[in-house]
Amino acid sequence: MGFYDEEKTALEYIAMADGYDGSWLIDILAPHLSVGAAVLELGMGPGTDLDILGSRYQVTGSDNSAFFLDRYRKMNPSADLLELDAVSLQTDRKFNCIYSNKVLHHIDDGDLSLSLHRQTALLHAGGYVMHSFWKGSGVEEMHGLKFHYRDLASLQEAFWEPFEIVAMSLYEELEPDDSIYVLARVRQ
After folding, report:
1. What's this model's pTM, rounded to 2 decimal places?
2. What's the rounded Cα separation, in Å, for the pair 29 and 182?
3. Is 169 helix (H, G, I), strand (E, B) or coil?
4. Residue 1 lies in a domain
């Protein structure tokens, strides 16, 4: 069982993340997507950003944690949810956008490349991705979870082949310039 599958540690994460959401990231995305567009959230966790996305878009939540999916489904029985690994993304569904907020930092550079290429297969022509990452260098492990820190140059390289970067910027989540977001569009 993983960190997010165990009730005790998943609930600790939910308490720690209380008060944080990606509403302003979603606001950056909004001018690029029509209201009602199909959006897949990778790593929805407790569903905070999924709820915000759902106020504008037709959303599908996904997570690799059965605990998070079951918990959200109990509160929202009609929710469209998929159990997905962020690398293999085993679904044949198509979306206008794939969104994640501090999820893809759990995978290494090779798996990030695989995930980004797989994401292009799940997007309609001209589709977008919006992902956020912790800024830095190296890898850290906490509670059995790996955190791969990235910088602007490494993200530009990772996104370059499958996507055209629309916007990329540093931002503050906990400390000045501790985070990076990337808004990109599938190359046509």
Report:
1. 0.92
2. 10
3. strand
4. no
- Which tens digits make up the pLDDT trace of 79-125? 999 999 999 999 999 999 999 999 999 999 999 999 999 999 999 99
Which residues neighbour 162 within 8 Å (Cβ) at sequence distance 6 or greater? Answer: 116, 117, 119, 120, 186, 187
116-138: pLDDT as tens digits? 999 999 999 999 999 999 999 99
Q: Cβ(126)–Cβ(71) under 8 Å?
A: no
Which strand (E) or helix (H) includes residue 167? Answer: strand 163-171
Q: What is the CATH number of the domain that holds 124?
A: 3.40.50.150
Both structure tokens of 187:
């190359």
**With helix as H, strand as E and coil as C, how does 56-95 read?**
CCEEEEEECCHHHHHHHHHHCCCCCEEECCCCCCCCCCCE
Residue 107 covered by a domain = yes
Number of domains observed in the structure of the chain: 1
Domain assignment of residue 42, given as a range: 7-186
Residues with Cβ < 8 Å from 70, sequence gap 6 or more? Answer: none
- Backbone angles phi and psi of 142, in degrees to 5: -135, 125
